[in-house]
Request: fold
Amino acid sequence: MWYLCFFFHRLLDYRKAEVESLAQLFCSEDELNDLQWRLPLHHHQDSPFHFVNLPSEEVATKIANRSILVKGMYELWGEGGNYEELEQSIRNYPDERKWPYLESDSTFKINVDTFGKVISLQEQTQRIQGFNYIPFKGRVNLRNPEHKFWLMETDDYGANNGLPPIVEKRIFFGREIGGADRKLLPTYQLKSRTYLGPTAMDAEIAFLMANQALATPGKLVYDPFVGTGSILIAAAHYGAMTMGADIDIRVVRDGRGPDCNVWSNFKQYGLPMPIALLRADNNLPPWRSGLKEVFDAIICDPPYGVRAGGRKSGGRKLLKGVVGPYIVPDDKRTGHIPSTGAYTLVECVHDLLDLAARMLVMGGRLVFFYPVLREDDNAETHFPEHPCFKLIASSEQILSSRYSRVLLTMVKTSQYTEEVAEAARIKHIDFKENHVKWLEDGNLHSAVFSPADAQLNGAADAKATREAKPKYRGKYV
Reply:
């Protein structure tokens, strides 16, 4: 059945991907094949209104209630370009679909919402009173109604007000069947978090990542760059078991004291504690040989050198071969902080894909951020690949005029073998040599923070080759 999906006007690339991922949770394989999207008449692809075909109202309700970006999901009773067309459309909607929600022993409420325009309270009241042709027999309950109906109206503002263009006015009327609980975002907002670091993940993005990874009770979620635990907190909120690692032992072991550390962040929200927090190096994973398929999902934000650069074990002298491997004496191990050296993103991502291929169960998901230079002279963006994975979603978040980050969602589709590992190594070398020169030696940091004058040469050509995305008003749109 087709439902009207009204999205929040933000993070446009993430909206459909989130709904499709949540459909994976609540639909069978056969039902997933029937999931389709279509736009309302005269609406732009970035419009907050989309029609989505879902197998049942129960599935649609579960998806909407679990989501972060679905403002509301509605059974559409009618639509039109004006109120006369809307009335005719509602009258034509099958009576057997309407009668269960119009009975005398029920309560209801009609709400008015708009996009691209503002209407006064008096105008809202007039519009609600205009629905006297719908035979509501129940009582009005403004606080806690059994059935909520919504009148949603857009304006024919074209492309002149900083929002996705709409050529012609459109009006929708429908029954609400679900919507995102955005109240959890103020609850988990970073400014009230006990323990924070410079790269702590925003709560909204963390919950989106958890939804992309299908975090649910009984699943084990791993973050190899755990930091202060922001991503794992979102996964734990949905009931998943969590486990994390970080190369900085001071973060995972000490924090800022016994009451200000990663553990205290979980305690603050009453969430289950992580199974373990390890001091581990993504370049030298601690897992014993032969250990495979442990995690249901790996979610992370690898260090890409803008706020913080990546580090790996060894120190500069060891990595350059000036000194050989050494063993820390027993009497100096207490409080010892291992030496580390620079860890480029291209190497980091290769190690991450190899770890995920080895440690994820079949069908498990790898969800991670990957940076993109927006002024790069290549019109096409190439993402890392691995023979074990299929890329199912890529969602861009523009962070500045110079760079953005893309949330990549991959599904493990084949078993990890030594032959696969060798094929992945060859693919990595090709990717490194042909697509990611700027990832080496901190070039991303230089591109983001270099003076504007240094970016002028060739910028016009770059902007001509890369297709510009429409710029709308609002933060993180």
